[in-house]
Amino acid sequence: MYEQLYINPRPFTAVTEDPLVADLKAFGLEEMEAQAYVRLARLGKARASSLSSALKINRTTTYRILERLKQAGIVETSMSRPVSFIAVEPKKALQLLIDRRKDELRAAEGRYSSILEQFTKFYVPSEEAIGAKFNILQGNEEIHRAVTRLAKDASKKMSMITSVRDLGKMYYSGAYEAIAAAAARGVKVEILTEVTDLQALDIVAKHDGFAEVRHRAESKMRMVLKDEEEALITVAAGGAEEEVALWTYSQSFASAMQSIATNEFHSGIELGAIATALKTGKPAESFRIITDEKEYTSNMMALLTSAKSELYIGFNLHPTFSTPAVLEVLKSLASRGVKVRVLSAPSSEEADIVRKLHGTIDFRISAFQTDVQVMIADGKEMLFSNAARAQGSKRPDINIRTNLAGMVSFMHNIVADIWLDSREYTLELETLQQSILLNRCAGAVRAMMQDHGIEIVLGNKILGKSGVLHKFDIISPSTKAEGGGGRIAVSFLAYSDPESTGTRLMESKIKLLDCEPIDLVIGMLQASNQGGENDGPVAKLARAVGLHIVQAGDPDRLAELVFHEIERRY
Predict the structure, then answer these.
(1) Quick check: 229 and 251 in contact, CB under 8 A?
(2) Distant-in-sequence, close-in-space partners of 111: CB < 8 Å, separation ≥ 6
């Protein structure tokens, strides 16, 4: 049974919690202290025994509570006997409680540094043991509040990948002011967004005064990062107005996302270039580093399909151009009248690609051996890659898409020159197979030279005394030549028939005479049915005209023999 107290004649139940009690607890009072003050305020004054009975606590505890309230200044005692306790006027009491809380907070702040220093001596963070906090935020209003808080808390850097639409909303949600204030106190602010028209440019320009803003195609995932400590990841969910965000203070997660954001930001186009492009109608210059395989494929297809008149591709086709989708794109370009020119060092895999595209695309055999892959559209834009994907290399891919005029023009001139100097890619099976094997020999010799520190001269031509440029497969300086300036040159030939092979040997002799002083080594790949090589007509002709020739039926063996000749002469 509850005890009923009848005061003035209004009944009051002792154990019923008054709403004011809960409110006073927020001011720093404990449960029974708040009940005691509220009861005194209702009664005007009361003796300790009455309070003890009403609060259902013993008298000793009641005196202790009243003493604490007196020390807080919100309860006073009467001068009469027996002593009664009086509640101080509520306005004064509440202000006293607030002042006390402020004093306590100031005291705590004063001890903050020393306490933190003591903790750092032994505290071991363990995200695995504790678990990083992740929260799901729903709706634009809640997400923008989180962005505002991140901006207010930031001390070093804020990175944002967002949409122009979101930037416009932030301008009216309070987030804009918070980000601007962060920049004003020295926080570096980076914003990456898609600026597609002048209206978007006007919205973004509001942020350009305090943030570094760059353009790139809009991402489905947007993020706000603070000091590599907190991350807010936003993804559109369902309707256009409904969004869901993931917030975390996991430093490892935030740091990983910061690496992504930094890479994306550096690959973006500066706002000034975009502004000029939008106002003049000319494309903005860009230099973009691509690391993701899917992104590389997407950019490659975009570049290929953008070609209007000319497309150069070199120097590795497999496996990038082996997929049906890419082959169809190349055929489509050729059918539209685009001159598709492919330079390739032949291999059995690439020969298959050549066969599939025969009659629609121009192919030439490249003597330029490299693991890079380059595509240039209309001499205006290119995609450059180290082609690690094609070589099975463990090195990271380096992929660059750019329309920087100087860089594209430089690479276009190089590829165009190599194209003019390269042999046409013929599809007679025997000739094609010979070309594949000869390129394999040349590549193997270059690899052995590099392994043994033998210098390879960049380029494969020597200007003869006649003024004619003569092409060789490999050129290296000779350290043994008298007076210096001597060179070792290598030409690879495939035996076909005595007459044709003899003609090519005489062409080699002419090159030798015109390019002296050079030391010419000819590597002859023998036919499988060829016999008596050392005493055959080709060998006799070579000796007769003073040509040094090494022969083998196996391309790997031929490469070894040629390398030993170079090593002996170097």
Answers:
(1) yes
(2) none
The verdict on whether omega for the bond into residue 315 sits within 30 degrees of 0, i.e. cis, is: yes
> DSSP secondary structure string, 453-511?
T----SSSEEE-TTS-EEE-SEEEE-TTSTTS--EEEEEEEE---HHHHHHHHHHHHHH
Distances (CA, A) of 460 to 71, 411, 478, 489, 547: 97, 18, 15, 9, 19
Residue 32 backbone phi and psi in degrees, to 5 = -70, -30
Residue type, 420: L
Helix (H, G, I), strand (E, B) or coil at 432: helix
User: CA geometry: angle at 280 spanning 275 and 282, to 5°?
Assistant: 90
- Residue-wise pLDDT for 142-195, tens only, equals 899 999 999 999 999 999 999 888 888 888 888 999 999 999 999 999 999 988
> Residue 332: helix, strand or coil by DSSP?
helix
Which DSSP letter does residue 137 get? E
Q: How far apart are CA 499 and CA 519, in angstroms?
A: 25
Q: Tell me how long the chain is.
A: 570
CA–CA distance, 316 with 312 (Å, rounded to integer) = 12
- Closest listed residue to residue 200, CA positions, set 232, 144, 162: 162
CA separation for the pair 200, 193 (Å, rounded):
10
Q: Beta strand pairing status for 373-377 and 243-248?
A: unpaired
Q: Which residue, 257, 245, 170, 256, is CA-closest to 211?
A: 170
Sign (positive or negative) of CA dihedral 64, 65, 68, 73: negative
Alpha helices in 243-346 (DSSP H): 251-266, 271-280, 293-306, 324-335
Determine the distance from the C-alpha atom of residue 508 to the mean position of all C-alpha atoms in its chain, rounded to a whole number: 51
Phi, psi of 190 (to 5 degrees): -120, 130
- φ, ψ of residue 418 to 5 degrees: the values are -60, -40
Q: Which residues of the chain have pLDDT under 70?
A: 1-17, 124-132, 219-220, 236-242, 282-285, 317-319, 345-352, 367-371, 387-397, 423-433, 459, 479-485, 527-536
* Cα maximum dimension of the chain: 142
Map tokens 């003049």 to a residue: 280
Q: Give the Cα separation of 234 and 223 in Å (integer).
A: 6
d(CA 175, CA 147): 6
Helix axes 164-173, 175-184, angle to 10 degrees: 90
Domains of the chain (ranges; CATH) run 4-95 (1.10.10.10), 134-280 (3.30.870.10), 290-424 (3.30.870.10), 431-569 (3.40.1350.10)
Handedness of CA 121, 122, 126, 127 (dihedral sign): negative
Residue for token digits 């993804």? Answer: 235
Instruction: Please tell me the distance from the alpha carbon of residue 371 to that of residue 315, in angstroms, as a whole number.
Output: 7
> pTM surpassing 0.90?
no
